[in-house]
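Progress note, sequence design subtask.
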């Protein structure tokens, strides 16, 4: 009995590994590669794997661990900082996408209203795994579009709990009149799970951690994740929701990072099976028979989601460029849609033919995601062109410093210049920040520095220097190009996160590009040597030498020596 299962597990992982390695060369996301592996290996493909039910059973443990770690990744403090895009942006995006999709399905006469609403909810969810990976690769998580994208993704992940509760109502298994009672019961159960989780899990894991036995801690983490899933199921909610709440309970605890580190390898191993098993649901013959419809649907989903997410981001005050970029980032269908889809299939909301088309089109949208993430900033910058908000009737400036960005870095620069009595002007994209700064008497204008308009109004050609300190490397690149187009001889200092980006920016014309990874490391060196009572002159000489060695062109030391600003 066990031998066929082991054989299929070996074959499944072998096929998955082959697809991961081959498609990695084409920069295809791992999730898509796993789905494709399952499609080829499963009954609807070449039929290599036979005992899919057993594989699915193990894969269910993978999704439990996946949702447990999603809960661990949540930071309630972080959510509070971006509560507006999380709450209002997420609600508008999910409900707006569902409404547009349901209306399109209904008007086309493809399905009844309840099925259209379900399909709308299915389409509304985006891929947290693919988008966060893409944003991290491009250093855009902290950018304006990155923050609003992450906020909407957080809401989507949380909304899965509510959407799973709506499926029985849409399928007719529960009446609308019973929905308040079901929601009330569920809220009560969730409260019980959370309270007991807070009372039990943190002290339990802290107790095990104090034992100093790593193997015991690993077992305790596995017990906590699967135990919360089982406990939630016993109280009437799904195992996935129970696991998610368990992770959420632990997210703010002292051991959360260690829990995540210990559970991640096992999660990835079993979550791989989950996504492969989803691919096994694909029938390649059905895909071939409906290929034009699938391609058209995939394109329609991407366009619809991008437009709705764009409008949503704009509605919560996101600047036009960031809103367009965020819309493209959220244009695919996500992994949690597949969980919702399987529940809808089991409830009879959709049939196998509809499921095949939806699943295939969803994978198609995922395949488009890398290109959308790559070209999103450029398209956003193009849409923002010519749409600058009036920057105000600023006096003609000369001999001033232009500061682009008014986060912590921009504020420190402005404060230093004010104390040195050097005139400056700030260009900032966040309208709220501009309003608050103006109330404090800070010379600041609203504008997007990726184009020449903001620099023109700031009279950058007569500036003494330019400092660009924004958390978006693509926007920084465009700002450097725009500034250099108007003021080729003005000293330009840029902050970026990584040295490889600093090299690129200096090649584009930045006088000095300061890499955070280098400067923070040098600061640690200085603090460490100071604690060891190394003479300050020696520390300064070492820092100057290291800084010169790590600077893209060796210009940083020369800049400081000249004292230009």
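Output:
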């Amino acid at each position: 009995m066990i031998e066929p299962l082991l054989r299929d597990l070996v074959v499944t992982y072998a096929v998955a590994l082959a697809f991961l390695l081959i498609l990695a060369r084409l920069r295809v996301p791992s999730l898509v590669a796993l789905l494709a592996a399952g499609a080829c290996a499963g009954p609807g493909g070449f039929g290599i794997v036979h005992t899919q039910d057993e594989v699915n059973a193990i894969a269910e443990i993978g999704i439990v661990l996946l949702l447990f770690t999603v809960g661990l990744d949540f930071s309630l403090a972080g959510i509070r900082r971006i509560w507006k895009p999380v709450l209002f942006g997420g609600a508008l995006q999910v409900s707006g996408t569902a409404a547009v999709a349901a209306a399109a399905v209904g008007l086309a006469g493809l399905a009844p209203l309840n099925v259209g609403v379900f399909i709308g909810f299915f389409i509304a969810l985006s891929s947290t795994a693919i988008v966060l990976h893409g944003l991290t690769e491009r250093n855009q998580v902290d950018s304006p579009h990155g923050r609003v994208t992450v906020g909407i993704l957080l809401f989507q992940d949380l909304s899965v709990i509510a959407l799973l509760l709506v499926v029985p109502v849409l399928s007719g298994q529960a009446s609308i009149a019973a929905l308040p009672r079901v929601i009330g019961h569920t809220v009560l159960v969730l409260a019980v799970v959370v309270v007991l989780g807070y009372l039990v899990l943190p002290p339990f894991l802290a107790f095990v951690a104090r034992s100093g036995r790593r193997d015991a801690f690993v077992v305790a983490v596995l017990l906590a994740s699967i135990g919360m899933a089982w406990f939630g199921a016993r109280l009437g909610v799904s195992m996935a929701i129970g696991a998610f709440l368990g992770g959420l309970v632990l997210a703010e605890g002292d051991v959360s990072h260690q829990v995540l580190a210990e559970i991640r390898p096992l999660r990835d191993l079993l979550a791989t099976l989950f996504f492969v098993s989803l691919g096994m649901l694909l029938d390649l013959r059905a895909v071939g028979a409906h290929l034009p419809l699938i391609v058209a649907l995939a394109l329609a989903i991407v366009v619809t989601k991008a437009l709705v997410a764009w409008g949503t981001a704009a509605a919560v005050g996101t600047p036009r460029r960031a809103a367009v970029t965020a819309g493209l980032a959220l244009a695919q269908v996500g992994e949690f849609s597949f969980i919702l889809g399987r529940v809808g299939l089991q409830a009879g909301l959709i049939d196998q033919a509809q499921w095949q088309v939806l699943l295939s089109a969803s994978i198609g949208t995922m395949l488009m995601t890398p290109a959308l993430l790559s070209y999103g900033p450029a398209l956003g910058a193009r849409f923002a062109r010519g749409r600058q908000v009036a920057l105000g009737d600023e006096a003609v400036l000369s001999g001033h410093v232009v500061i682009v960005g008014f986060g912590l870095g921009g504020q420190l620069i402005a404060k230093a210049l004010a104390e040195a009595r050097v005139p400056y002007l700030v260009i900032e994209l966040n309208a709220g920040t501009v309003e608050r700064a103006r109330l404090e008497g800070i010379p600041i204008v609203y504008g997007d520095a990726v184009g020449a308009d903001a620099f023109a109004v700031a009279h950058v050609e007569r500036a003494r220097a330019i400092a660009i300190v924004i958390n978006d490397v693509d926007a920084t690149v465009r700002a450097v190009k725009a500034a250099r187009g108007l003021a080729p001889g003005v000293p330009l200092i840029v902050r970026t996160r990584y040295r490889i980006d600093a090299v690129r920016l200096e090649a584009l014309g930045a006088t000095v590009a300061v890499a955070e990874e280098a400067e923070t490391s040098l600061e640690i060196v200085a603090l460490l040597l100071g604690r060891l009572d190394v003479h300050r002159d020696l520390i300064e000489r070492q820092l100057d030498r290291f800084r010169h060695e790590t600077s893209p062109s060796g210009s940083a030391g020369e800049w400081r020596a000249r004292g230009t600003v």
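The first strand starts at residue 401 and ends at 404. Work on this subtask will continue into the next period as scheduled.
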